[in-house]
TrEMBL record:
Positions of transmembrane segments: 35-58
Region feature (Disordered): 1-26
UniProt cross-references to InterPro entries, sorted A to Z: Lea14-like_2, LEA_2
Domain of life: Eukaryota
Domain (Late embryogenesis abundant protein LEA-2 subgroup): residue spans on this chain: 93-193
Record keywords, A-Z: Membrane, Transmembrane, Transmembrane helix
UniProt name for this protein: Late embryogenesis abundant protein
PANTHER family found in the cross-reference section: LATE EMBRYOGENESIS ABUNDANT (LEA) HYDROXYPROLINE-RICH GLYCOPROTEIN FAMILY
Species of origin: Parasponia andersonii (Sponia andersonii)
Length: 210
């Protein structure tokens, strides 16, 4: 009887040990599975971060250049004996840097033209625009029709008689965008604008600027 009891107890012990061993192995497998899952999630997260960094932070865009806040100082015109004009105005040139790094640019020239002939220019001194920032440069512009004397066929007389003067302006400044202090990329900021001067109201309108 005692031997039978011993055998029964021994059988229970072996089954308990086997069950405990299986339970321990299952726990280890679940633990490894969790670790692998965490590693996979972390890897995916890292890939997403790197992709966002490459597409957003490391992507270099061309800075924007705009002419704004035009304040007319002098506007003198004549239609006879020859059509002429002399214009002086103050303005603000805005250089917008959309990048995640500073933009250093060289000296640029804004040219104002009438029917393709330069009637005035103004310098934009070299400078620096911080990351995601806009730099305002105040300029004083003097324009004259003196260079138009060589043109035989232009619409200046007709425009002045109608009380309007339309001019265009264009420029391009060249510089470099610096990223992470080690990488530099060449980028140019360009601007093309059309301005209309109303002679009666002495107002200036920007017809188009990009």
């Amino acid at each position: 009887m005692a031997e039978k009891t011993h055998q029964t107890t021994s059988g229970h012990t072996e089954r308990d040990e086997e069950a405990g061993s299986r339970s321990s192995d299952e726990l280890k497998r679940q633990k490894r599975k969790k670790i692998l899952t965490y590693i996979a999630i972390f890897a995916v997260f890292q890939i997403i971060v790197i992709a966002v960094f490459a597409l957003v932070v490391m992507r270099v865009k061309s800075p924007k250049l705009r002419l704004s806040d035009i304040e007319l100082r002098t506007l003198n015109t004549a239609t006879s004996p020859a059509p002429t004009f002399d214009v002086v105005f103050g303005a603000e040139v805005r250089i917008k840097n959309p990048n995640f790094g500073p933009y250093k640019f060289e000296t640029g020239v804004v040219s104002f033209t009438y029917e393709g002939i330069v009637v005035g220019q103004v310098l934009i001194p070299k400078g620096k625009v911080g990351m995601k920032s806009t730099k305002e440069v105040d300029v004083m512009v003097s324009l004259s029709s003196q260079n138009l004397a060589a043109i035989g066929n232009n619409n200046l007389g007709s425009e002045l008689s109608a009380g309007i003067l339309t001019l265009s302006s264009n420029t391009a400044i060249r510089g470099k965008v610096e990223l992470l202090g080690i990488m530099k990329k060449n980028k140019a900021a360009e601007m093309n604008c059309f301005l209309a001067f109303d002679l009666a109201s002495r107002m200036v309108r920007t017809l188009y600027c990009e």
